[in-house]
Amino acid sequence: MLAEPRPIGTLKARCPACGARELEITDYLYDAPLVGLLLLSSGTCSSCGYRYSDVRMAEGGEPERLEVRVERPSDLNILVIKSSTASLELPELGVKITPGPASQGIITTVEGILHRVLEVLDVLCSDPSADMEECRRRRGELEKALQGARPFTLVITDPDGASKVVRDEESKEKLYRALKAVGAATRP
Ligand SMILES: [Zn+2]
To answer: Which of 36, 69, 162, 168 has the least C-beta neighbours within 10 A?
Structure first.
């Protein structure tokens, strides 16, 4: 058992923001209680200040499909570890997010995912040619979902099997503390 995240290596990478080879990334292994062995990465570009963080399950490998049924407000606190290779879908809400080449793994809650989707919707709907009626309808649905008043399903498909859903409260708190300690992806 690794009580704390243990650094396993550091490398210098090209910064996706400014292009300088000044992004120093440190990898950590952390055996999170009741979650499993996680690979955490974090770093900052010394040239432009860009911050990088990534998280994925260290073991796995088999393609997987995780499904979370959200039926009550407390379900919005369920924690999701979504690796950089995973797609995310909310079928009843008409949302599908596929990973791009610059995707990073994140740890967030179901609520955090809904907030991100709302942000994307707002950007799409700020286009003058957007269907305002449809925008209002979708925003209404997402807001109901955020209040726990609209049951829905969250589906994560990960070809690398590097994602995870965490429901246990104590595991969640320990995980957040560990992530904070290494400056990795934290609560949205
Ligand atoms: Zn940079």
So the answer is: 69
